[in-house]
Amino acid sequence: MTDPTVPPAPAEPNDIANTLAPEARPLQAAPTPAADAAPYAPGVPQAYAPGSGPVGKVRSTGVCILLAIVTLGIYTLVWWYKTHAEMKRHSGTGLGGGIALLLAFFVSIVMPYITSSEVGGLYERRGQAKPVSGATGLWYFPGMFILVGPFVWFIKTNGALNAYWRSLGAR
């Protein structure tokens, strides 16, 4: 005979959780979907988790500053378009290249704040401390009144973006 005060032994040693009352059972993690085996193809919409899209390009800070000076500021529009397009493709969030270009052309004073905020957001979504944020845009304006402010802003923001891309394997 069996003693009614003794709970029955589990069928398998690892099946102890099934003998507990439902409210006392440990929570089990939901199964994670398998990663897409298909590589990224330009122009083809991709379904990916935020932060798992294609990695952006590392741009030399000195070369970017030189191009901005030589082109009388036109390269800054190109830089904003390309960096925001890459961040949007990578993270699935943000302005994207087209909206960034429109804002840069018509209300360019907001772009340093938005760009630094989006770069900081890339780090934040990975659970890391943000090296730049929207407040970094203050180096651009009103920092432009001390002449070096925009350079400080660009060096900090482009440097943080480059470091992020490098941490994902970009060269």
Task: Write a compact overview of the structure shown.
By secondary structure, this protein is mainly alpha-helical.
Helix/strand layout:
Elements: H1 61-70, H2 74-91, H3 97-106, H4 111-125, H5 149-167
Helix pairs in contact: 1-2, 2-3, 2-4, 4-5
Order of helices and strands: HHHHH
Q: Mind telling me the C-alpha Rg?
A: 25 Å
Mean pLDDT: 83
Backbone shape: elongated
> How much of the polypeptide forms β-strand, as a percent range?
under 5%
Largest sheet: none
What is the share of helical residues?
40-55%
Name the structural class. Answer: mainly alpha
Strand element count:
0
Describe the structure.
With 171 residues, the chain is an all-alpha fold. The chain has five helices and no strands. Helix 1 packs across helix 2, helix 2 packs antiparallel against helix 3 and helix 2 runs parallel beside helix 4. About 6% of the residues have low confidence.
